[in-house]
Design brief:
The chain has about 70 residues and is mainly alpha-helical. The chain has helices spanning about 1-15, 35-55. About 50% of the residues lie in helices and about 0% in strands.
Length: about 70
């Protein structure tokens, strides 16, 4: 699978722990509820990080506490 090769290359370029690759079974060209929940969680974490840059008081919060 070409995507697996891309993931390996990406992990060699950035901190490997920051790269998460998931395969969602039973899907062709659609999405699943679990995939959408994972996307939402990813966006929530990014928004938290952006807010920390702008509002230092929020930096004490963690994504788990949101």
């Amino acid at each position: 699978m070409i995507v697996s090769l891309i993931v390996l290359q990406l992990k060699s370029l950035v901190k490997a722990a920051n790269v998460i690759f998931k395969v969602y079974g039973g899907m062709t060209h659609s999405s699943s509820q679990q995939e959408m929940m994972d996307v939402k969680q990813f966006i929530d974490i990014l928004i938290h990080q952006i807010n920390c840059c702008h509002y230092k008081a929020l930096c004490r919060l963690t994504p788990a506490s949101l």
